[in-house]
Each structure stands twice: as structure tokens, then as C-alpha cells.
Amino acid sequence: MRAWVYERYGDVDELHLRDVPEPVPAKGEVLVEVVATSVNLSDWEALRGSPGYARLDGLRAPRTRVLGSDVAGRVVAVGDGVTRFRPGDEVYGDNLPRRGGFAELVTMPEKAVAHKPPGLTFVQASTIPQAGAIALQALAPAAPEAGVLVNGAGGGSGSLMVQLAVARGLRVTAVDNAGKLDFLRRLGAHEVIDYRQTDFTRTGPYDLVVDLVAHRSVFAYRRALARGGRCLMVGGTLRTLLRMLTVGPVLGALTGARLGVLFVRQGPRHFAPLADLCAAGVVEIPVDRTFPLADVPAALTLHGEGRALGKVVVTVRHDAG
């Protein structure tokens, strides 16, 4: 089968489309014929080996050689002990940290996979597992009518989060670059901020701040919070992560705020509820562009450079939808 393989951290020039052996499902696994795979920030970070936590897969070189974790496709075969799926089933799921989705076939743990909702195309379904789980869990602490700020709102997780927050009756401030502000208004954001022009930590105060690309100090985040407010870092620099884990709880205890890191729980029960909302038309799935398997480097570049409005998807089969 064909797969995009990389053996060293770096840019997209490290990616090579190769013929590799077809994987065989082990006990508790399903073999999936990939129809579509969406691009996530975790793919870009794993390719570059940066921030530092992206090298948990290997300090000097990646152990996992094929990127792509959010997969939608059809079950081809099942391993011993698999009871929920059979060949021909249309499925989707998040294969992080094993990845392997930028390929024609991938093995996935049975527990990571769900049946694809009939109302969603393979392209649409592939965008949901990782981004949907983040959106649902990040907004879980928000009380009704709370003021919420999302930094990095124009990407995959952010674009779903903005819509989900609006649907829940929250007041949403969306932060991204100027080229994405009209897009965020169309998604329903009540206020939009160009981070290059305005320091969002000096606006507000907000009941909940979710930062998908965090790099500010914990004191700046605290400044943006209302009394009793909460800040959650989802992605960002290693320095910010460490400070949020160490200084954040201390500062929060002293000031009555809560500052920390969102450790996203994986699996269908954490993303399927959002898929149901998307299938019902409550939340739109914004897909900026789709690329064929041969153009994975271009897909990763569009996403990694922060230019995509919503999700970027790689289509492996012609019936991706």
C-alpha cells in the first residue's frame, strides 16, 4: 500500500510517499480502508518535533513513521476479540498516538473507532474525533450565559468550539488573524479580535478562556479572567505548558481563578456527541480544502502555517464526499 513516511523531524521535505507492507490487525484491532483523514495541529507538531512534548514519540527521531490520526473509512478485516465491527462497516475515529492515517490502510484499536453517522460524509466524519473531543471538553466548565474567549478560533477545534458555544447560549469572543475574522463572524462569534492588533488578555473579563495556541504568561491569562474564571491551555509552547502546570495552580489559589491544561480524553464517547450535533445541522463542519493523498505535504503546510479556515482534509478514496 502507499503511505507518507518520515524518519526525521523537520519540514514537509522529510515526507516521502512509499510502498509499504499492508498492516495486519492484531487482537482487539480493526483494519480500516482509509477514505479520508483530517489534518490536526498534532500532525504538524509531530512532523516538526516541536514543541518539546511532540518528541514523546521519540527524542531524536519519530518511532511512529506515518502521520494522520483522525480517520474515516471502511472496515476491511478485524482482529481476534473484536465484536462491534465487521468488514464493510463505515467507521471513524482518532488513532492518536499511533497515527497512520496518511495511508491507504491503517490498523486502529476497536475502542478508538465508532460507526460513522449516516448523515455525514467521510470527509465530514474525519474532521470530528480530535477537534470535536477538544471542543466538547474545553467548553464543559462554562456555565449558562458565560463569557468565553477562544484563541486560535479559526482552526479546526476553534471553529467547532465557537459554534458549539453559541448553540449553548454562551457569549463568544473569537481571536485569530485578520484574515479569519469574517469567517468567525459567520460562525456566530459575538466579538472578534485580531491578535496582531489587540492584546486579548487586556480585554474581557471572561468566565472562560480557551487557548489553542498558548504562549502568554500565566499572569496575562489571569488578567483576562473574571473573578472565579477559568483558563484552559489546549496547545502551545512547552514553556507555557510547564508554567501553566506549575505556576498556574498557585496563582489560581491566590486569586480565586483556575488556570491549567486541558488533558483531552479520547475515544468515541468523547467525540460522538458532537458528531450527532453536526449530523443534525446544529453545528456546521467548516472544511477549507481537501487534498488527494499525493498532496499530503501541501495539506500539512496549509494547516501548519495557520492559513486554513476550519479543517483541512486528505481524501484517499474518490467517494470521500
UniProtKB/TrEMBL annotation:
This is NAD(P)-dependent alcohol dehydrogenase. Residues 10-314 form the Enoyl reductase (ER) domain. Pfam families: ADH_N, ADH_zinc_N_2. It comes from Cellulosimicrobium sp. ES-005. It comes from the Bacteria. GO terms for molecular function: oxidoreductase activity.
